[in-house]
Amino acid sequence: MRALIQRVSQARVSVAGRETGKIGAGLLILVCAMEGDDSVRADQLAAKISKLRIFKDEDGKMNRSLLDVGGEALVVSQFTLAADTSRGNRPGFSAAARPEDGERLYLHFSAALRGLGVTVANGEFGADMDVSLTNQGPVTIWLDV
């Protein structure tokens, strides 16, 4: 699975003007299931993200995890993270999981984060979403598992 995470002071997502998810301080997690991914990878990604030390400690160093700071997560499906731009000017997305697998793994990933003790809000799988955030730092990290 692939994720792009951003440390945020706040983030929200809406579909057709209806807010589907909103968080305060924590992580905006754009996530993409890739062809061949399974629930084991979704669990690994959730564990990695929950323990990734990218929040400041009392000395101002990035030494605390999402779990350490009690941060929230806004999880948004983002199949375009699978983009292949190696040829031409139009990205290809054949490396992304099929939609039914992508949705299943997206939901599994969100549930895995919740199971680790993270408060999770979600976007809507497959929808045209508006995402807003305040990136804190800025801190933006790409992860593949």
Please give the largest β-sheet.
Answer: 6 strands, mixed
Which outline best applies?
globular
Q: What's the CATH first level?
A: Alpha Beta
- CATH superfamily grouping: D-tyrosyl-tRNA(Tyr) deacylase
Instruction: Please tell me the overall pLDDT.
Output: 97
CATH architecture assignment: 3-Layer(bba) Sandwich
**Number of H/I helices:** 3
Helix and strand string, N-terminal first?
Answer: EEEHEEHEHEE
Query: What fold name stands as the CATH topology?
Result: D-tyrosyl-trna(Tyr) Deacylase, Chain: A
Q: State the helical fraction.
A: 10-25%
Count the beta strands: 8
User: Beta fraction of the residues?
Assistant: 35-45%
What topology does this entry show?
Elements: E1 2-15, E2 18-23, E3 26-32, H1 39-51, E4 55-56, E5 62-64, H2 66-69, E6 72-77, H3 99-115, E7 119-122, E8 129-144
Parallel strand pairs: 3-6, 6-7
Antiparallel strand pairs: 1-2, 1-3, 1-8, 4-5
Keywords:
145 residues; six-stranded mixed β-sheet; two-stranded antiparallel sheet; D-tyrosyl-trna(Tyr) Deacylase, Chain: A; 8 strands; alpha/beta; 3 helices; single chain; 23% helix
Description:
The chain is globular, with a radius of gyration of 15 Å. The chain is built from three helices and eight strands. The protein has 145 residues and is α/β, with parallel strands linked by helices. The strands form two sheets. Strands 1, 2, 3, 6, 7 and 8 form a six-stranded mixed beta sheet that branches. It has a two-stranded antiparallel ribbon with strand order 4-5. It has a single domain (2-140), classed as D-tyrosyl-trna(Tyr) Deacylase, Chain: A. α1 packs across α3. The protein has helices spanning 39-51, 66-69, 99-115; strands spanning 2-15, 18-23, 26-32, 55-56, 62-64, 72-77, 119-122, 129-144. The termini are close together. β1 (2-15) and β2 (18-23) form a beta hairpin.
